[in-house]
Amino acid sequence: MKRIRILHTADIHLDSSFSTLGVNARAGAELRAAQRRVFDSILERARDWPADMVLIAGDLFDAGEPCDATVAFVMEALERLAPIPVFIAPGDHDPYSTYSPYALALWPGNVTIFKPGGWQRWEHPVHPLVIHGIGCDGVNTSGEWFHELHVDTDDRVHIALAHGAERTHQPPYDDSFAPFDAADIAQDNLSYVALGHFHDPVDATGDATSVMRYPGTPQGRNFLEQGDRSFLELVIEHNGVGKPTVQATAISCADIVFERCVCRISADQGAPAILDDLLARMSGDASHRAVQVQATGTTLPPAYEVIEALRAEARPHFGYIEIIDALEPMLNPPPLSTQHTCLSKLNKAMAERIADASDKDEAAFEAYARDLVVKACRSLMLPTHDAAEPLS
Amino acid sequence: MIIQTLTYKTQNGDGETATHSLGGMAHALHCADVNAARNLSRLLHRILAARAVYNASPPIQIATEMPGCGALTATLAAEPDDAQHHYSLSLAADDETPEPIGADLLLLSLHEMLEEDYDYARIAREMAAIVDTGNSQHDLIAALARLDAFTARVGRDSDGNTPLARARVRLASLKKEYEAAESALRQVREHARSLETLRDQVDACRHEYDQTERRLGASVLGQLADSLERLEALERDIEAARSGKCLDSDEAAAIQRAETQTETARLQVERTREELRAITEEIEALRGVIANRTEMSDGAPEEMEQLQRHIQSGQGRITEFNARLDEVNNQIGTLDAQIAEAQEQLTALPDFSRIAPNPTDWLNQLARSFKTALGVRDAEEETRDALREELANLRVEIAGDAAIFESSANFAEELLAHQNARQHWETRSTQIGEEIRQKRSQHDEQVASMPGLFLLSLGCALFLSLLLGAYVGLQKAPILIPAFLMLLSILYFLTQLLLTRARVMRLARSIDKCQSELDMMGSGEQGEVSQIDRLMTRADCGTARELEARYDRYRELRAKIEELETRFAQQEEHLRESEERIPKLFERVRSTLEQVEEPPEDEDDIENAVGRAIAKYQVYRETKRRLADLRNQHQGLLGRRRFLERELATTRESLPETEKQLREIMRNNGFADEGDYRDINAALTAYYRYLDAIEENTGRVNTLTRTLQSLEARLPEEEAALATFTSTLEALLAHAQFDSPDEARAAAANTMALRDMEREKATIEQQQESVLQGRPVQVWHKLAGDAVIDDDDRGPEHYARELEAIRQQREDALQQYRALFQKRQQALAAHKPLCEIAEDMAALEQHIATLRRDVSAAAHAGALTEESLRTWRARHSSAIAERASEILAVLGIDARMRLDLDPNDAPSLEAAVENDHAAATPAVLSLALRFAAAEMLVGGDGAPPLIVDATLQGAPLPAPPEKFVAAIKEIATSRQVLLVFEDDAIADAVSKLEMQKTSF
User: Fold this and answer.
1) Is the pLDDT of residue B349 over 90?
2) Which of A190, A225, A252 is at the close of a domain?
3) Do residues A352 and A265 both lie within one domain?
4) Both A279 and A341 in a single domain?
């Protein structure tokens, strides 16, 4: 009985930009460092297990031309993994193009990068194992290459490595790149198809004769990729007769887990109490959590202050925290509702504008303007965002 | 909303609590002292204005601590008879700040109105703030200013050092940084192809290195297998050799040496004997040859030499003549070719003899004539141009003067007339001026004498009057005499005066007449000299003399121009003639040059054409001269050839006799082979060679004889040595127990072979070590992998060299790759990664959006606030003033108030008091206005109670207590009013007006 151990990962998206989260470069660098730590931990696991090989099914980098430091980091990490062979099939984010590191960098000897333009094969010198792989070129997005794989009918174990979207399991939020059906590639003698593109783990096998798995991204990058992430450990057993058995196990690996939660802001509960509540709700170490908090309640003046205070106090505790102001504007707050002063009349007019607002943003703007007036009338400090220097 | 009940601990120390129902809309809370009253009013206000209370819906029960009194619980209800299910709330003493908005509509403190500086302006300002926010300290104008300051602090478009401006600048900087980083990335892309090529080279080298390394492994293993096989064979051979007979190397060497010596001695003896025999035979043969030669006669050599010289001389001359003949013939052939060439060349050239006896002179003369004609024409043209230019210059020079003087028909006459008239005018005007001066002098004298005559007349008249008075008074007749004289004097002086006056008038008229004449002359002079003066003005001349000199110059120039115009016309005629002559001359020259096939293209080509024709003529002349020379040389050479042919024939006829004599002498000297040589020289050469051989054989016989004698002496010695060596060899063989030297040699060879095999074995083992390079065999097996040894395996050394070459190649490619990659890294090192810049840009854009939202929201809030102010201040101010006037009436004051709260002006208050002016203090006016505001600005369902803090601290109430309480009761018709006080007079009024009261 021959047993082959393979580590399968994909969609690591190293060197990602986190500008969509609204973070500055410093916070972005922290999140990128988390991606690197995850990549390191995956390779560490490959060494310790030990894996017979590592398969990376595309989107190792987030862009076609990542910065040299990231490429150097990856190459050093993969070189340390030698002699364990590593196979990379470039994906749609990091296609094998003229300027990509796949074409330019001097990869370690244990790394095999599959080029676009046709399936390539690599035969294991010891095990009866053949790896078939193909890379993306960034131009052809058809996925027609999934029809073109030809696997020999022999007693060896055949594995395919590629990047594309299996139509049946296409999640709504992922791009449909290189769409294909599982039946397009499934073959009797093809034991396993290591896929990449979907950021959530997906078993795309269905009725196909070959096992097909997406490991998902091992490190989330935004709040669409919540919860723990994983890579796959495959154990393929083959006795030389019949079809090999494939056993896949997902291994948790995310360094920073993205989570969403809702938090009600009330006048009688200060920021420290809300923070304590938030920390208690975290399932793990908060410093390894990226949390998006929806602050609900009404736009009573203290609510803004509580949110601001919460932002300031929570930041050191979390890997990343984003507090979304989802407060509902209070149309007639006391004591303005029981008076007929100019301010009360103004409040009433502004409340009508809030109520008549075409969308939530406009209503929030009107409520914010009213809050400014009320604060100005109370001689309170008007909010200033200068202190929160965005690049500091 | 009302405060339904108040519960607090009693002061008697037993810890009991007292609950007071405040069900009525107007309720008086009578406190023991000022502090208690003030604490109570503040506490009630804090309860009513607490945010927690606002956020809760009544009924609500609020518990708090009253300083110095203990716990106080207030029950708030929407209606006086509201349900008893209260929502309990605890209000800490120091953790709830009252809401400032509407504070003065909840709590009215009388002591503020009793301050000394309380005037109309302050009342108006406070009322404006109360109308705005319900708080006398917070008006919307100040809020607008804060909003504006906020906008300025965040940043307007024009502001430079604000957060918004800084953020924009930083964003622009980041955008530039991003573009620069992108640009750098684009620039480094140009290295991509080279990098990829080098990378592929390195990869290929690595792959080739691996392959070669496997081949090396296979090769090493192959060699190892071979050497093992050889080792096995060797070991077998060694065993076989060891079983045979061996001989020690020293003994083998001694036997070998003895055998060699014996053999050498034997061979030497045989060789010496052979040499003796050969020398003897040779001497015998040479002596036979020498014996055949005959003796030569004594005089034969001299005769032979003479004959030989004669023959050689004749042959030399023949050779010389032949050579000269060949040379002459060659020269004739060359000359024939040259003559033909010259004739051909001459045929190609024009026949210059038809042009003129001396074509060069003729052609030069033609060219010179044409050049001269051209030169004449150019000179004429130049002269004409010079005249034209001079004329133009003169015309320009004269143009100014011509414009001045052409208008004058006869300038000389005009000038003369002008000078005469001028002279006449000057003379006459001098005369008239002199006449005027004299008459004016006379006039002045007469005028000066008139006052004296008048005074004398007057004096005489006065004296006459005195005399007549004296006569009338005295009636004395003598007095009449001086009177009569005085009368005469008077008449005389009067007559003189009249005459003088008439003279003065006449002189004045005369002066006027002269003056008018002088003026007329002046005006006449102006009319007459104006033409000359105009000319002087135009000519810018100060005097007529200058003008005259100018005219003279003009006239000279005019004459010169006329002369030049005449010369110019003549020059034009000369030029025309010159130009007409040139075509004729050109035609003549062209026809001449056409004969020599060098027609000129145009006039300018004449000189060149003539030059070409002369050059051609020189070639023609030179060719003709050369042809004549060649013909002369040809004739000379023909004569020389004839001479040489004659001399050659003569010489040839004298040689055969001499040859015959020489051959006879050679035959006589024993040279029988003379007949074999037809040529006498060859025969002579053979003859001399024959003589040399005879001489050489003689010398050889002598030498051989000496060698023979030497060998005969050495032979016995060599035979003795041979015997000695033979006995030594036999002794050694006997000692080693060998029967023959061959047996000993075989034993020695076996020993040597054994030793060689052992050495080879060691060498193979050493080679094995070398091939393995110190590595275990297993390593080589691993390295070779599945590689099999090729048929054309070139050996480990070859593969090692290949590996080294590949390694070097890889190192070179790697070095180039690293250099290029380093260049790329250096180009990118100055820039941050794009993702980082993008993140900073996104964060900054979000920040800018927030700041812009702040500015927009502040502007929006400001605009709405201004609109609210304009609308509601106007409405509220008049209503409040009117209601305050009504409340004033309740307070016993008949007054009309006007409150102006226009937001564009400072707030103002006016009050027209009808009755008690003294009572209409600012405090009472303010009280009325506050009551009115509290009534009108708070209303609707849930209007909170009004707390009236009437703590006076000894100060007088602004209004009489009863009227004050009556006013409160009137206010309480719209909302609950709690009057908190400590004053007994107010307590009396409360009791008198039957207002509900609770004492604390």
Assistant:
1) no
2) A252
3) yes
4) yes
In a domain, A51, yes or no: yes
- Evaluate whether A136 touches A145 at the Cβ level (below 8 Å): no
A369 to chain B: closest CA residue:
B857
A 315-354 residues inside an 8 A Cβ radius of B: 333-346, 349-350
Domain count for chain A, please give it: 2
| Domain, as residue range, for A75 | 2-252
Name every chain A residue with its beta carbon within 8 A of the beta carbon of B936: 340
**What stretches of A266-388 show up as alpha helix (H) in DSSP?**
271-281, 301-314, 342-356, 360-377
Asked if residue B13 has pLDDT above 60, the reply is: no
Question: pTM for the whole thing?
Answer: 0.58
Q: Are the C-beta atoms of residues B980 and B950 closer than 8 Å to each other?
A: yes
Chain B residues within an 8 Å CB radius of A337: 942
| CATH no. of B2-154+855-999 | 3.40.50
DSSP one-letter string for B62-107? EEEEETTTEEEEEEEESSTT--S-PEEEEE-SSS-PPP-TTHHHHE
Is residue B460 within 8 A of residue B489, CB to CB? The reply is yes
CB B998, CB B979: distance < 8 Å:
no
For A160, other C-beta atoms within 10 Å of its C-beta total 28
pLDDT > 70? residue B85: no
In chain B, where the domains are located: 2-154+855-999, 356-595
pLDDT score at B728? 87
Same domain, A190 and A303: no
Q: What is the ipTM of this complex?
A: 0.89
Asked if A104 has any chain B CB less than 8 Å from its own CB, the reply is: yes
Q: Are residues A200 and A267 in the same domain?
A: no
* Separation CA A214–CA A226 (nearest Å): 17
How distant is the Cα of B916 from the closest Cα of chain A, in angstroms? 32
Q: Greater confidence, B166 or B940?
A: B166
Burial class (CB in 10 A: 0-12, 13-18, 19+), B727: exposed
Residues 6+ apart with CB under 8 A from B943: A338, B1, B974, B975
Considering the domain architecture, whether residues A192 and A237 belong to the same structural domain is answered as yes
Across the range B872-896, mean pLDDT stands at 92
Enumerate residues 6+ apart whose C-beta is below 8 A from A323: A263, A293, A295, A307, A310, A311, A314
Could you tell me which chain B residue has the CA closest to the CA of A377?
A: B143
> Which residue of B197, B823, B836 is the best one to mutate when testing the A interface, meaning the one whose CB has the most A CBs within 10 A?
B836
Q: At what angle do helices B480-539 and B544-595 cross, to 10 degrees?
A: 0
Q: Are B933 and B127 in contact (CB under 8 A)?
A: yes
Task: Take residue B28 and report the two structure tokens written for it.
Answer: 């008086």
The residues, ordered by sequence, that sit 6+ positions from B618 with a Cβ below 8 Å of its Cβ are B360
- Nearest CA of chain A to the CA of B93: how many Å? 16
Q: Please state, as a whole number, how many other Cβ atoms lie within 10 Å of the Cβ of residue B775.
A: 13
CB contact at 8 A, B127 and B880: yes
Distance CA B992, CA B854 (A): 58
Same domain, A154 and A182: yes
Which of the residue ranges A215-219, B29-33, B48-52 has the most confident prediction, judged by mean pLDDT?
Answer: A215-219
Q: What is the pLDDT of residues B847-858, one digit of tens each?
A: 899 889 989 999
A residues 115-154 near B, CB within 8 Å? 125
In DSSP notation, B735-785 reads: HHT-SSHHHHHHHHHHHHHHHHHHHHHHHHHHHHHHHHTT--HHHHHHHHT
Tell which of A233, A252, A271 closes a domain.
A252
| B975, B78 contact by CB (below 8 A) | no
Statement to judge: residues A27 and A62 lie in one domain? yes
Q: Which residues pair with B77 in a beta bridge?
A: B2
Q: pLDDT at position A75, please?
A: 95
